[in-house]
Amino acid sequence: MSSTGRPEDGFKLRSVALAAFAPAALFGLASGAMVPVIASSAYARGAGTALAAFILALLGIGSLLTNIPAGVLATRIGERRAMLVAAAVTLTGLMCCLTDLGRGPGSLAFYALGVFLVGCASSVYNLARQSYLTELVPPSMRARALSTLGGTMRIGVFAGPFLGAAATAVDGVAAAYLVSVASVLLAAAMVQRAADIKRTPQQRLAGAEVTTRSVLREHWRIFATLGVGVLLLSAIRQTRQTVIPLWAHHIGLSAAEISAVYGIAGAVDALTFYPAGKVMDLHGRRVVAVPCVLVMGLACMLMPLTHGLLGLVLVAMMIGFGNGIGSGIVMTLAADVSPAAGRLTFLGVWRELVDAGGAAGPVLLSTVTAAAGLGTGITASGLVGIAAAVMLWRWIPRAGGHR
Known about the structure:
2 domains; Growth Hormone, Chain: A
């Protein structure tokens, strides 16, 4: 990397492809292959609907509980080793999921432990890879790098269910987990070959001395302003995954039609990540972050006005476009405002806000829907996007990106 940090000085994104982008796609593929079969696997072990839903939620719970410890771990052993630890824990969790003890509480508890471990490992891996790429890439190319990172992860998540479904059709549900195992092993092999971030002993000591309490004390204004905007952004992003199938079912679409609508939205999402990163690097973060949440919010508010397949497809594409152009925005903003000393600890707190928003979005949708109906619940979720746009417009620097 050049000392000036300008892309014209010779840095190329492809130089970090095998170290960062390819493993991200493979971890995304592993997740995409596993998530669709969690509920059916829980049912097969004797879970009811409520318990199956809780086991599915253990992915998010594990991530939420591990964000701050993940920062501590990566600070002590380094980003590359932390990613390798995450791969090992993921494989352990997948082995728990593959172990068939029959029906009964013991089998279900062992399976739930496996899902929880995968959720914990995802937090460690996501935080370490974000810090790893932030350290390697010049600030002038940061948004392009992180949007590409987010985009490759989404491509993997998009492809995973199809590979998992094909494997399941050949050899049953266990084959979907084997797709995840193979993906994680390949990702770990790539990370193993990557170079470590080089830090002086003084830099390592300075990072180790930073505590979560000191980060909160020194950066509370950022968390209370820009951090709240990111929390709302995460809420509308997580909600978008729920409103499409719920409204499609509400207006009477078939299961095949619902899958097609969801797939079209995912394709639009996955195809729009790189141009947004280039725009952010050249013109600042606001020009992408604000339209991202504004488009998703408006699309949610338009959804209750649709009554057929074509209308819903158009709105779903709008949601996919809004989310796609914001690929990497949360990681980019975090990289911009995080301190050099104690960056991993800062990112752990930042990801707590992100996960809290992701948990709050569907809860708001569920609460308003129970009180006033699905259409009103989706509209309320859209208002969250509008609020996020206002917050991000106010608190993201008007010009430029990184500080």
